[in-house]
């Protein structure tokens, strides 16, 4: 252990121990900001927050290093784990280890890219059985809304899913078909009856079908084939159907900054709409993507520098609510790296392990504080999913933490990531901030013993 890492003291022999775990340091991020604090943990919960120097006694004590900040564990509500069915793409063991290595202590798994997709109770139980023995972090589940499963929505809700995902165009996998806008509205009416959440991949297939033929290199042609207008039209439809039904709705992976104005208006009108974006839209630029570099392909696509800056502005203004990974891995073969054909390559960026340093690297350039980054990557995603006891260091919350060294740096090496397939658009990039340690319910993630839990809506 380096001198910059946290030092842990074993005090099990002390009769004075009041807590299972005590964490103390000069920089601890609580709901009051970063300050010198001591945290007392008992039975996996935060039960004491005191000024540093109160000398709380614990069976175990972690001294946060002088170069570290104790953060709440991050919450990532947009992860494609792909198990069962496409476990060669990822899987619960590799995905949850990657999450823990990135300071993410809770993920919510998407209902598609698994076989069977999570569109009925039987499929949910199959997925839970696959996840339980491999959970290195806490795992929750989204349900799916597809044609013909309206009668399954309530039973999935009662079984604890956090909401329902639908697509407004082909999902990329045939076993998870898309809804028409009218079908989405019908399902929204059902979800409103039990106050669930509809999360939407909002791109319009007609706008994509009518995109003009483009000239240029592979990426330029791909970018023009998924125009901003496809997002804008679909997002407008989501807003209006949410307005009519009164349902809570959420726009996934926003990449088009053009949509920010109508989202802002909808929010001011009282429409129950929230929006996320992702690290790849905030850190990568269309102008810098090498020809044939299909590791960069995702849908909707990475757009231009001017668009990226407007997304950051949307975050700072509160129009965009949170940042989550949309971790969507695949095998290297499916990325078609040999041919570099964006038309056939799988669309998805694997970044579950890298999200915090990616965003912190860019945030620093803009003078954005670490506290704000944690709002976007822990507090707000927890609020989106209704995780009342996660996302912040506060009394009564779960003792999920990440020890983060914001002044440290590292070079991304895909072979050293826990992601199952070693392909990433970030390979070779230098990033600021290193996650040194993750803690779940007061226990260290040791990457040998899975101690995460499966979590349900309303119980976490």
From TrEMBL:
E.C. numbers: 3.5.2.5
Q: Which GO terms describe its molecular function?
A: allantoinase activity; cobalt ion binding; zinc ion binding
Pathway entry: Nitrogen metabolism; (S)-allantoin degradation; allantoate from (S)-allantoin: step 1/1
TM segment ranges: none
GO biological process annotations for this chain's record? allantoin catabolic process; purine nucleobase catabolic process
Per the record's keyword annotation, is Hydrolase included, yes or no? Answer: yes
UniProt entry keywords in alphabetical sequence = Hydrolase, Metal-binding, Purine metabolism, Zinc
User: What broad class of enzyme is this?
Assistant: hydrolase
Q: Where is the Amidohydrolase-related domain?
A: 69-442
Q: Return the Pfam families for the record.
A: Amidohydro_1
The record's Gene Ontology cellular component field reads: cytoplasm
Q: Which cofactor does it need?
A: Zn(2+)
Which superkingdom does the taxonomy of this entry point to? Bacteria
Q: Which family does it belong to?
A: Belongs to the metallo-dependent hydrolases superfamily. Allantoinase family.
Partners and quaternary state?
A: Homotetramer.
What is the protein named? allantoinase
- Species this chain originates from: Glutamicibacter soli
């Amino acid at each position: 252990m380096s001198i910059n890492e946290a030092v842990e003291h074993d005090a099990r022999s002390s009769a004075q121990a009041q807590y299972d775990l005590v964490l103390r340091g000069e920089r601890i991020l609580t709901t009051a900001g970063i300050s010198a604090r001591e945290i007392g943990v008992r039975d996996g919960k935060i039960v004491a927050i005191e000024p540093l120097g109160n000398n709380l006694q614990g069976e175990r004590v972690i001294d946060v290093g002088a170069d570290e900040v104790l953060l709440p564990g991050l919450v990532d509500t947009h992860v494609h784990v792909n198990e069962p069915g496409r476990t060669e793409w990822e899987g619960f063991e590799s995905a949850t280890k990657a999450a823990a290595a990135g300071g993410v202590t809770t993920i919510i798994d998407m209902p598609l890219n698994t076989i069977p997709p999570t569109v009925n109770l039987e499929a949910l139980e199959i997925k839970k059985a696959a996840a339980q023995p491999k959970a290195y972090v806490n795992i929750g589940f989204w349900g799916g809304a597809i044609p013909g499963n309206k009668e399954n929505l309530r039973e999935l809700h009662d079984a604890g899913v956090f909401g329902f995902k639908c697509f407004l165009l082909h999902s990329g996998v045939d076993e998870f078909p898309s809804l028409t806008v009218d079908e989405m509205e019908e399902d929204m009416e059902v979800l409103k009856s039990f106050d669930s959440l509809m999360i939407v991949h909002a791109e319009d297939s007609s706008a994509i079908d009518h995109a003009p033929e483009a000239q240029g290199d592979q990426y330029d042609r791909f970018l023009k084939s998924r125009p901003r207008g496809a997002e804008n039209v679909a997002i407008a439809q989501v807003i209006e159907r949410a307005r009519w039904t009164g349902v809570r709705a959420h726009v996934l992976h926003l990449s088009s900054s053009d949509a920010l104005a109508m989202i802002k208006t909808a929010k001011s009108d009282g429409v129950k709409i929230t929006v996320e974006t992702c690290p790849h839209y905030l850190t990568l630029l269309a102008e810098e993507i090498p020809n044939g570099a299909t590791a960069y392909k995702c849908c909707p696509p990475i757009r231009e520098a001017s668009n990226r800056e407007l997304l950051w502005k949307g975050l700072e203004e509160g129009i965009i609510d949170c940042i989550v990974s949309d971790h969507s891995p695949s095998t290297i073969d499916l990325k078609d790296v040999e041919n570099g054909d964006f038309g056939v390559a799988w669309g998805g960026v694997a970044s579950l392990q890298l999200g915090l340093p990616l965003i912190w690297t860019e945030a620093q350039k803009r003078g954005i504080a670490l506290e704000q980054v944690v709002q976007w990557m822990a507090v707000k995603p927890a609020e989106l999913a209704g995780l009342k006891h996660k996302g912040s260091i506060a009394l009564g919350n779960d003792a999920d933490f990440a020890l983060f060294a914001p002044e440290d740096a590292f070079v991304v090496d895909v072979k050293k990531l826990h992601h199952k397939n070693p392909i990433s658009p970030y390979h070779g990039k230098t990033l600021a901030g290193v996650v040194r340690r993750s803690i779940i319910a007061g226990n260290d993630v040791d990457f040998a013993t899975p101690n995460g839990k499966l979590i349900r809506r309303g119980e976490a």
